[in-house]
Structure formats: C-alpha cells, structure tokens
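Predict the structure of Aquaporin.
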Amino acid sequence: MATIEQLGYSAFFIALTCIFASVARKLNERLSKDGLVKELFFEAIAAAELCGCCFELIIVADNFGVATYAVFLFALTIWWGRCWGSATACPYTYMEQIVEGEVSLKEAALKIWAQLMGGCAIFRYVQLYWWLELAETHQGRAFEDCKADLQVNLYLGAFIEGFATLCCRLASKVISEKDAKFGAFIDSFIGTSLVVAAFNLSGGYFNPVLATALKWGCAGNSALEHIIVYWIGSCVGAILSVPLFKTATFRDLFLTAKSKSD
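Done. Here is the predicted structure for Aquaporin.
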C-alpha cells in the first residue's frame, strides 16, 4: 500500500523538475540573444517541465488516486502559468495564431518541433529517477511497457479530446478578456476538472505534445489512432475556438457584463 512517504518522493521529483526548469529558463534568458532561437529554447524547456512532471503524475494517479493527481495538477497549472512567460508547451496555441494571422507557418512549425524535442527528450531524466527506485511506487516503472489510455471508441476519444480542448480554450479566452481577479485559479480549476472528467475515457491530455511524449508507441493504440485522437482531436477543438469565440451568440452569453460596462 502506498504511503505518504512514497508520495513525498513523487512531490520531491516534481519540485526538482520545476527547479531545474526555472534554472534553465534563467540561463536561456541570460545567454541567448532575443529572437526566435531564444523562444525555441523556452518552448523546449516548458515542454520538458510539463512532460517530466506529468510522467510522475502518472505514478501519483496510479498509487494515490485521481483526486490526489488533480490537486497536484491544479497547483502545477497555476505555477506554469506564472513561470512560462510566452511559452505554451502546446502546439495548438500556434495553430490558433496561424488562423488569426499572428504567426507564420514556419515559425509555428519550429516552435512545435522544439516542444516535441523537449517533451520527448525528458523521459531519460525521468527514467533515471525511476530506475533508482527510491520509492516502492517506482519499482519496475523505468523499463516497463506502457499502455495506451484510450478506453473508448477511437472517434469518441477524438471527440472527447477535441470538445474538452475547445472548452478549455474558450474558458481561457473569456477569462483573459474579462481579466478576472482570480483568473489563473479559475482557468486551472476548469482545466483540471475537464482532465479528471476525461481521465478514464481518453486520458484527458488535451495537449498533443504531452500525449505524444507520454503515450506514443504504447500498447493499445496504433500511430494513426494516436494522431487521430490526440493531435487531430485536440487541434480541431482548439482551432474551432477561434471563430466560435468571435460569434455574437457566444459573446452575449459569456461576455455580456464586460460589454455593458463598455
């Protein structure tokens, strides 16, 4: 049976990962010249931090339950929102910007590539910690075969990832435009709640880079199925949020108070 002490090892690893990422960001800020290369490094660092922490959150969920997982995720989401700056560690934010005409296809592709490199490369660091087996919860995890999280029909899984991503993005846009006092906490609560709701259905990733870093090649899904659910599903949901957010009906429903004050 998992103990508080073993949970402490997971908390320590997550905190250590965040510290390493913070140091890496400071080094990048000092040593890199302003420009695209510097932004690429920030994206890679953010993706590495995200995926490194979420690898350990799998351990937390498996041994301490989804509720404990949700508490960690809620706190981490707030932390990342405060520390990442303009980095997103998520591909569809740049796809949205392409639709809006705010970024070129080349720049978006390079940033998504940087995210993938950071997210996928971090596993060796995670694997080393698991290999030490400091906690019983890490025993055998470093080299075990992983299993896909999709527990529903392929297309239902894609719909779940897409619809939840759509809800997340719309909520973030509304909170940003309203400039809510506790916006970061509200945004984190909504995102965490949706992840928990989808956890036993599709895994609740809502981020193609995160899903690929954690579950690409795992038993239970082919590469095409993974792409359909976690890339096409999520990205379509995010892109749909752009025109939907601008519709009069949506703005009347969720931004009425701001419109009256104007």
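The two ends are 57 Å apart (CA to CA).
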